[in-house]
Every structure is written in C-alpha cells, then in structure tokens.
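1st attempt posting a full record on here, be nice pls
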Amino acid sequence: MPPQLRSFIEVDPESPFPIQNLPYGIFSPKSQSSDEGDNSQCRVGVALGTKVVDLAVLAEAGIFDGAFDAVAAFRSPTLNAFMSLGPAAWRAARAALQAALSADGPRSLAGNASLLRACVRERSDVALHLPADIGDYTDFFSCREHATACGTMFRGAANALNPNWLCLPVAYHGRASSVVLSGAAVRRPNGQRARDPKDPSQGPVFGPSTKLDYELEVAFFVGTGTEMGEVLSIEQARDHVFGCVLLNDWSARDVQTWEYVPLGPFLSKSFCSSISPWVVPMAALEPFAAPTSGGSVQDPPPLAYLHDARYGSYDCVLEVAIQPAGAPAPPVTVSRSNMACLHWTMAQQLAHHTSGGCPLRPGDLMGSGTISAATGLPAPAAGSGGGAGGGGGGRDAVGERGTRAFLLDGDTVVLRGYCQGDGYRVGFGDCVGTVLPALDRGEFESDGVQ
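the predicted structure (as tokens):
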C-alpha cells in the first residue's frame, strides 16, 4: 500500500500505529471492576491510533473473503494459529484490513456504523496479553559494536571479538518461560557472583545482583515451522519471519561474569525478558529497508549458506529511557541506536538456526542481541547501561540519585522504536519494566549457602 494511504480513524502523525503499520496483538475486554482482562475472551486485534480493531468480529463479517480460516485464526487466544498459516495468509489479511480501514475505496467500512461499533475499541478499555505461546526463545549476538564492548569487558580489548563472531550468528538458548509482557515488574535476581572480580580464586558469594542491566533488542517471531532435519536457505528463511517486537533481555552482569565460562549465560539471563505487546508485520518494515551501518558487504564474507544477496537491515530508530523511582515524569532518554547497526540479518540468523536440523515452531522468539551504535546518544550509543554496553547509557538518567552504570530498585526502563515515514511513523509502542527488590533469601548468607 502507498504511504499516502489514510484511515477513516484519525491517527496522530507521531502515533506508532498508523494504517501503514497495523501490528497484531492479543487483547481482552477489561472487567468492570479492574484493569484485568477476561482471559476467556482473548482474541486477535490490530492497533490503529488509539484504537484496537477486533479481527474476530471482522472475520465473522466476511471481510477476509475466505482466503483462509480467519474466524478460527482470529478467535484464538494467541497469534500462533495465524502465524502458522504462512505468508500468503499474512498478505491476504493485511490487504483486506488496509482496504477495510482506509478512508475511501470500495471496501472501506467507513459507513458501516453497526460493524464499527462492534469491532473498534479504545485501547484504554482493553487488557493486552502475550501475543504468542512462546515454545522456544533464542537470543543472538548480532551487533558488532555490542559484541566488541562485551568482549572487551570479559576478555580485554586485544581479544574482544572471538574468531568465530564474524563467521556465524552467535546465539544462546534462552528461557521462554520467563518472557513477560511489557508492564510486568522485573524482580532483581539472586545469584552467585565473584567475591573479588579481580581474583576469581576467592570464590563466590550469593545474593542480589548488584549490576542489573537492560538490553535494547529487537526480536522476531517465527511464523510457519519446520520439520526436524529441515534446512532453510536464506530466501526460504525470510518467509518464516512473521514480525517484530521490542525486547529487553534483562541481565545480571555480575552473575553473568562469574557463570558464563564455559557454556555461556544461565541464571544471569533466565530471570526475565520483556517484550512489547504489538507484533509489527515485516510488510510494515519493508519500506524502511536500509544498508547496515557498517556497509553493504560483510567482511570476511560468510560461508555460502549464509550469503544474503539482500544483506541489510531497517532504518529504525531505537531508544532507551529511564525514570528513577520517585523522579518526575517523563522518563529521560539515555541512549539512541538504530536497527541498521545489526551485522547479521534475521534471514541469516534463521538459516543458521536450522542449518543443523533444529526444527522451528510457530511462536518461537528470536532476539537480535543488544543493539548499540558506533555513534549517537551517548557516543558510542550503548544498547545496555553497564560496561558490557560500552557506553554506560544508564548513567545519564538518574536524576538526583547520582552517576551510576547499573539499575537501582525502583528504576523504570522504557524501550521505544520507530521508522519515520513521510507524515507517519511505523513503531512498536513502549516496552516497559520496573525493577523490584530481590526476594529475601533468609536461608542464605552473603558468603554462601548455610
């Protein structure tokens, strides 16, 4: 659809949800007595300005023309059923929705008052839920600036990048059960950390992490799955990417430093990962396709199975804002990056993921890894707040609580991301989390288990 397409529902030019976007989410009506939603009434909707459009109602009205079983897909309490239908169904649904919600045209619903009353709700009147049943979660490490900063912290500048990093999309298998929706509180984790970080021989202590950090990421949902042993080419991989969300992969840096050798992060990552509620379809991002900030050629060139003829990312501004506990609103922006800073593309990530025969399932979540920029706010524009981010982005937004690199209890972290079009924005909405104190573990002492 052309960028001049307009909806008959008024949308502010700075709203992240114009008709050019139409991100998918799961909602339910709020109960009359609270802000909690009725889980038995969960179904699929799209965001349009300040509204949520109920796709189950539109499906029952026949606007999708039988291109797929829209009633079953959109009456579902997750997006998994719709995602599993594949690109043809995704394209048909998007075309039908844009035609129905446009300001003019033969298929516009602008004059159908009764149907609009049934399917259009204020976003403030609904509760949002996790958009998918997430069976598996993989977190990649795809930004060179962040990988260099991380490696410098752990191994020193001379060995910042391991030899394999420029040859394959490095990743670890995360914990799907601790992926939460934006707005859910984030409990500071307890864990082991080095008694003396400069002298590991002193052994560990156990207690609340003292170096809690955020990570600014973009994640994508797998649409159609694959069979065990099936391998995807780069071009095939593109057709398995349904859409994107913002991801804050919260990290306990002191726990991570102690535990990550030899198998990588474990408890330092598994305690919580937050995602934004609206899944932006890839078709909405395609107009903003752009070369990566490092150029259009990967050096050294990847092996043949990872060669991406359409190598590049998206010109999508990414921001981190922090509001310390008790500080006046609004949160202060402490870092600004761009999705174009990714070295490895989504197609490369997914092709590599399946290259050993690992099956994919609808709803699998794939994180980009922290996205930091070589220049920006601050310089470098760190996608995380502590030393691992390379810039200490969190140090600029602490109000009266002093200069620091890591998060304190009560801090609220807000991730934002958007692509700027001509008179409109395609965005994700906010991904928000507030840090709660660690649980009191009375059976533990600071120097070990008693």
